[in-house]
Amino acid sequence: MRDIGIIGVGEIGRAIVDGLCDGVEDPPRIHLSPRGARTAAELSERHEGVRVCAGNQEVVDSSEIVVIAVRRQDRHEALAGLKVDDGRIVVNVMAGVGNDDLRRTLATDAPLVRAIPLPAVRERRSVTVTYPSHPAVDSLFERLGGTLPVADEAAFDVFSALTGTLTTHYAYLATLTSWAAGHGIPPEAAETYVRGLFQGVGRSLGDGTRSLRRLAADHETPNGSNERIRTTWFDRANSEALTRALDALLADLA
Ligand SMILES: NC(=O)C1=CN([C@@H]2O[C@H](COP(=O)(O)OP(=O)(O)OC[C@H]3O[C@@H](n4cnc5c(N)ncnc54)[C@H](OP(=O)(O)O)[C@@H]3O)[C@@H](O)[C@H]2O)C=CC1
To answer: What does pTM read for this prediction?
Structure first.
């Protein structure tokens, strides 16, 4: 696919453009919506094949694949009245917006594919969940780190809920850092140390030969400090609270 359009040029729109273009020998032509003007202008200056359109209809008319990346609450304003003929392929990255909902808004018979690109598509290092599988869309996300097509929209929503846990992970690390700083460790030293510790965790996650339970056990001395924090803080009540929060998120996404 040579022509890709993006309606909604914010965080995730920008990550997709950078992933498709940065250091790529033969990048696609990319057509951006005018809103998010500063980001759109910056991207079109930085990448040769990227241009800003006069309006959202021009994005659609110029593109074989159109990525919809506005916030959920902005979708009607952004999309109502657009004409999307059946020959285009629409990629819906809006969290919590099902394809039925989007089809009503766009009133089109064009193929609609849901996708969950994450910011790491910028470095082409993130696997993108898609539903339903479509060869052109799957090959687009292959270029950005990989594609994981799933069997139905219910499975898609489960993966979508999982992606809602990322910033909690950063907040957890920030809390560890603040705790150490509260005990007199210079904040910078605390943060550098915590980042290093969990970069090690990231590397060990790359070892697919060990299950997550195995990795936890391998890092734990019986009756040691790790076992103590796991069993006294991440205890059954905490784990169940997390499960309930995920269930509630899933219910809202579905
Ligand atoms: N951030 C992430 O990691 C992920 C986000 N998503 C989904 O992607 C979507 C966008 O998220 P994110 O990039 O974080 O949000 P941002 O707020 O960063 O970007 C949304 C963009 O949409 C633009 N916009 C608003 N109204 C219109 C319109 N009428 N026509 C064209 N563009 C418009 C906004 O412009 P302006 O600034 O002028 O308002 C803004 O640039 C959401 O639905 C989210 O659920 C999905 C996966 C991951």
So the answer is: 0.90
